[in-house]
Amino acid sequence: MNLGATFLNGITSDGGNYLFTTDFTAKKIYRVNVTDSTFNIMATTVKTPNGIIYDGANNRCVFVTWGTSAPIQAMSLADSTISTLKNTSLSNCDGIIRDQQGNWYVTAWGSNSLNKFDSSFTSNPVVVMSSLSSPADLGINAAGDSIGIPNSGAANNVVFYHVSLTTGVENHPGNKNGNLFPNPAVDRTTIVIDQPLLAGTMEVTDLSGKTLKKESVNGNVFFIDRDVLPAGNYSVLIRDENGKIIFVQKLMYR
Q1: pLDDT by residue (tens digit) across 136-165?
Q2: Tens of pLDDT along 85-101?
Q3: Those residues with Cβ within 8 angstroms of residue 48's Cβ, 6 or more apart along the chain or in another chain
Q4: How far apart are CA 111 and CA 129, in angstroms?
Q5: CB 3.0 to 4.6 Å from 65: which of 47, 130, 213, 237, for a disulfide?
């Protein structure tokens, strides 16, 4: 698909029909409908947009910007307005990603560093990796414990930052074969188990043990949509084809 853009750079998906991509040179953000091959310009920015990430819980895309004193900004998906989430002293920011706890990570060419922001961009960033080489866009693995950072400069390699998976929600003491994230959650939750299932079941129960959701599952990656469940604590159980529980963990909805 030809968008007629100048320098497409960052890209993100809403997990459904839409992609969002930044035009670095023309300072625009496009929305692409992959189901009918149409697109539109969502916003024209003042700052130069670079890496971008979909933030469905807040109905926005968050993006980083190029240049000096580069702010972290957001584009509303409701009305396309641009807001500044955090003014920074960083320069030439490239990639952005978020971990299971909601923390944000941003690469900056100016300091050749990976910088960690809290979930609400309240505090100043903390440098968690330095001496990088023109660090570019970021990706986080399905387990949520490793961020990949491509060095686009002289190093010309990929390095990894280990992410702590501490959530503050108690895990089942015997649960060694899987992970559930994000936790606490706002909407969708992902479960990854070590060994794939065939003809298994997944249940969400309240703390009394009453089943609120139940579905058949196959494979080793599953998704739970919150739907109408109110804020509170729940349990997630996965059973094998014989009904044996192989995964159980508490899940908190905010």
Answers
A1: 999 988 667 889 999 999 999 999 998 876
A2: 999 999 999 999 998 77
A3: 24, 25, 27, 65, 66, 67
A4: 10
A5: 47
Domain 8-162 in CATH 3.30.420.10: no
CATH architecture of 178-253: Sandwich (2.60)
Q: Where are the domains of the chain?
A: 8-162, 178-253
pTM of the model: 0.68
Alpha carbon of residue 66 to chain centroid:
21
Q: Is the peptide bond before 150 cis (omega within 30 degrees of 0)?
A: no
